[in-house]
Design brief:
Elements (H helix, E strand, L loop, with lengths): L3 H14 L6 H8 L4 H11 L10 H7 L3 H16 L9 H11 L4 H5 L5 H13 L4 H12 L7 H12 L3 H28 L3 H32 L2
Length: about 230
């Protein structure tokens, strides 16, 4: 049976095999190769995650079988919904809307965008994988998805300020999530030790994490296609 460390090592290797920061979408944001209009299209499409987070984190809380861990997950849901732990009482969806407002996008356009097919598919997959098995949900959300951004989002935010003239408030979402996602993914590591106790569980963790990272890459491909279609 794979140990917890071997399981985590396998997931770390997946992130090395499929590094999200090397994807042309994120590389373009970091390097400033997109126009401000194109970044606006990115903001609309990527909103499928931060503007719909209750469909993901919220479901992990509901299905968690352990009262102690439900409490920990409740803290994550509380922070996303209120911002009272990391972001001075600004809910994370509002942090994201501050980003899109700085790009000239009205809030109603953010809530009702023309999502690309990949974004809609990603939402359906993500919501489902967080809905019925806590081991799968932890692997997908905390060990695969939220493990991608820490160490990259904050530097990317500073680069976007330079390239697009954005204020600190406009990029707070990214800076805060650099820290918050690191905390959430570390919670996932602890949860793994408590819930993935059998070989079947740990094999499921590895399989689910790979599937989630692959789905993330599909999402980024779809967003990049829309970004390019907007033109400079």
């Amino acid at each position: 049976m794979p140990t917890v460390q071997e399981t985590l090592g396998a997931i770390a290797n997946m992130h090395k095999e499929m590094p999200f920061e090397k994807h042309p979408l994120w590389a373009g944001l970091y390097e400033g190769t997109f126009s401000k209009r194109q970044v606006g299209e990115f903001a609309k499409q990527f909103g499928i995650i931060p503007l719909h987070n209750h469909n993901y984190h919220g479901r992990l809380y509901v299905i968690c079988p352990d009262p102690k861990w439900r409490s920990r997950l409740a803290e994550v849901v509380y922070e996303e919904g209120t911002g009272k732990l990391y972001s001075n009482g600004i809910p994370h969806n509002q942090l994201y809307l501050n980003f899109s407002r700085a790009l000239g996008i009205p809030d109603e356009e953010m809530w009702q965008p023309d999502y690309c097919p990949e974004a809609l598919t990603f939402k359906s997959y993500f919501r489902d994988v967080c809905s019925h098995n806590i081991v799968e949900g932890i692997a997908a959300h905390m060990l695969a998805s939220e493990a991608q951004g820490p160490g990259f989002f904050a530097p990317m935010a500073r680069r976007m300020q330079k390239h697009y003239g954005l204020s600190d408030q406009a990029v707070d979402f990214w800076v805060i999530h650099d820290a918050a996602d690191s905390d959430h993914s570390s919670v996932g590591v602890e949860l793994l030790g408590d819930f993935a106790k059998t070989q079947q569980d740990r094999e499921l963790v590895i399989k689910t994490a790979r599937g989630m990272i692959e789905m993330s890459m599909m999402l980024y491909d779809g967003i990049l296609t829309r970004v390019k279609a907007v033109g400079r």
